[in-house]
């Protein structure tokens, strides 16, 4: 139930808050002026727009936060100070400043500050994505890179990706035969959620095929409650009051997730106790590996159950919507740029042909498909603001940065910087093509042809950069290339004109699509036949 706040109540609270701000400003001014001059050190701080009491720069920001920060940076420079309520940040908005923070001073900035409502989190101090740079984070990062999500480890899960892609194609084919409208958002979120759930706990999923759907419902409810918390409830004076009850709803959703994971962990532990020693080499899922690490007496640290539960939550929150939204944006751009779609189809037909489906080993031979993926992630990055916390005093761009300072690296601004990218708001995959193929007009400013997805070049950082860069980049890249590729290989797509207007509208701080993406798949090659051709 939504609680309505009457205008009178609003004025009453606003009045109180303004009086409080005035008193605290005067008090701090008085205290500061009373300090002898010799104690005042000269600190060179980055510039900042004029701020209001209490609100800070809140009035200068819109719901598309990265865009409004980009506009402010044009006026106040590539490193500026911004305040939102009681939270203060430095915002870095160009590649050179990002390089200082994420490369030159990578270790000093390897922790993160928490932008989300962390005080409602029932797993306090058990998180991985927001963990400070220390023993636990280093241990988990190593585990991710050696045993869970990197290189050959990803190969292990290829049958899961194949199986889920087949299910998606089967569903699209049925809709094309029935001439039904297809809700691409729902289809793609089911695909990315199912893949991660199966990789994480395939044993549980094979016993209970409805499990990924149940998990998705709980997690999306949790994310919806989190998104409803306003700035005032997260950073401002309402932080500890939970006036609208959103915090309580969020905690309830977290408890539901906790009960489910508790039960799943118990099942895994019981099945391990009765495990036949001959099955020791059978395929291990992520849960098996984490529980094995728990039991390992030589492990550097002993994982707690809360850490395992939170790790799964982190994967689902970080990996499901980001990947599905990126595939949706690629499809939208292809619907709107028929000439790009035609070029992609030409590449598919010449590299793969029409007797089998695209597979993962085809991707290195498909530069245009790779360029489409990169250009989509540049234009519609799902992680537009990278969070960091400085753990020591240092200098960035000649300005003094104090220990404990919160930093936002505006990846959106960097990937839309007109000094780097020609026509930065246009979808032009050609800018990522190698010299021989390139339309030179678009590759003139930076060497975009050699940029990879891992943020080595700080002009292009859709998965972040440095120590805290995304651990799922390998998985996400495979899923994006294959899913976009097979959807274009097997179907033509029809989108109503009025839908085309709607689909470009974005919302929220990550620039997600504001409307459901409805379209009509028209069968071109029968995926069920191609799957048999492999
Ligand atoms: C298109 C899909 C994805 C995009 C665009 C994306 C983007 C990002 C970005 C921008 C960050 C922050 C990096 C930084 O601060 O430097 C991040 C972190 C992270 N991502 Fe992804 N991600 C995607 C998919 C995934 C997937 C599939 C997984 C899980 C398998 C995942 C797991 C994580 C985790 C755990 C972190 C936190 C890493 C840390 O703090 O050490 N992401 N991602």
UniProtKB/TrEMBL annotation:
Entry GO terms, CC: membrane
- Annotated GO MF terms: heme binding; iron ion binding; oxidoreductase activity, acting on paired donors, with incorporation or reduction of molecular oxygen, NAD(P)H as one donor, and incorporation of one atom of oxygen
Q: Which UniProt keywords apply?
A: Heme, Iron, Membrane, Metal-binding, Monooxygenase, Oxidoreductase, Transmembrane, Transmembrane helix
Q: Which Pfam families match?
A: p450 (PF00067)
Transmembrane residue ranges: 12-32
Q: Describe the family membership recorded for this protein in Swiss-Prot or TrEMBL.
A: Belongs to the cytochrome P450 family.
The name on file for this protein is 3,9-dihydroxypterocarpan 6A-monooxygenase-like
């Amino acid at each position: 139930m939504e609680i309505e706040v009457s205008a009178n109540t609003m004025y009453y609270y606003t009045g109180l808050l303004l009086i409080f701000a005035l008193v605290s400003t005067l008090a701090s001014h008085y205290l500061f002026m009373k300090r002898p001059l010799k104690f005042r050190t000269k600190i060179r701080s980055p510039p900042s727009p004029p701020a209001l009491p209490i609100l800070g720069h809140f009035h200068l920001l819109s719901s598309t936060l990265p865009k409004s920060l980009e506009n402010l940076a044009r006026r106040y420079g590539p490193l500026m100070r911004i305040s939102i309520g009681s939270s203060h940040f430095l915002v870095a908005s160009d590649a050179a400043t990002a390089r200082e923070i994420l490369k030159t001073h990578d270790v000093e900035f390897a922790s993160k500050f928490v932008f989300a409502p962390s005080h409602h989190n029932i797993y306090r101090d058990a998180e991985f994505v927001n963990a400070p740079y220390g023993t636990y984070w280093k241990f988990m990062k190593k585990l991710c890179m050696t045993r869970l999500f990197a290189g050959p480890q990803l190969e292990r899960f290829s049958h899961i990706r194949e199986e889920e892609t087949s299910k998606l194609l089967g569903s699209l084919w049925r809709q094309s035969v029935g001439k039904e409208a297809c809700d691409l958002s729902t289809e793609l979120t089911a695909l990315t959620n199912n893949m991660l759930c199966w990789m994480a706990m395939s044993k549980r999923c094979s016993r209970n095929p409805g499990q990924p759907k149940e998990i998705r419902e709980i997690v999306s409810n949790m994310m919806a409650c989190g998104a409803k918390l306003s700035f005032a409830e997260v950073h401002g004076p309402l932080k500890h009051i939970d006036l609208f009850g959103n915090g309580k709803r969020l905690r309830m959703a977290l408890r539901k997730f906790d009960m489910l994971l508790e039960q799943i962990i118990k099942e895994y532990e019981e099945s391990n106790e009765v495990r036949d020693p001959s099955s020791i080499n059978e395929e291990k899922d992520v849960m098996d590996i984490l529980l094995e690490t728990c039991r390992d007496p030589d492990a550097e640290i002993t994982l707690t159950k809360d850490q395992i539960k939170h790790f799964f939550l982190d994967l689902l929150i970080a990996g499901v919507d980001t990947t599905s939204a990126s595939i949706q944006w690629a499809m939208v751009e292809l619907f709107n740029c028929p000439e790009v779609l035609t070029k992609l189809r030409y590449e598919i037909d010449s590299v793969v042909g029409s007797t089998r489906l695209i597979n993962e080993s085809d991707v290195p031979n498909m530069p245009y498909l790779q360029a489409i993926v990169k250009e989509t992630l540049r234009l519609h990055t799902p992680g537009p603001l990278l969070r960091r916390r400085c753990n020591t005093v240092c200098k960035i761009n000649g300005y003094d940065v104090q220990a404990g300072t919160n930093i936002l690296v505006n990846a959106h601004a960097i990937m839309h910087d007109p000094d780097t990218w020609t026509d930065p708001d246009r979808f032009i995959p050609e800018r990522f093509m190698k010299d021989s193929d390139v339309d030179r007009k678009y590759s003139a400013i930076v060497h975009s042809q050699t940029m990879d997805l891992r943020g080595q070049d700080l002009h292009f950082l859709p998965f972040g950069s440095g120590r805290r860069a995304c651990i799922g980049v390998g998985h996400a890249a495979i899923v994006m290339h294959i899913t976009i590729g097979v959807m274009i290989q097997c179907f033509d797509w029809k989108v109503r004109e009025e839908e085309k207007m709607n689909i470009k509208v974005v919302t929220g701080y990550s620039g997600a699509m504001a409307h459901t993406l409805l379209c009509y798949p028209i069968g071109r090659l029968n995926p069920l036949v191609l799957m048999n051709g492999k």
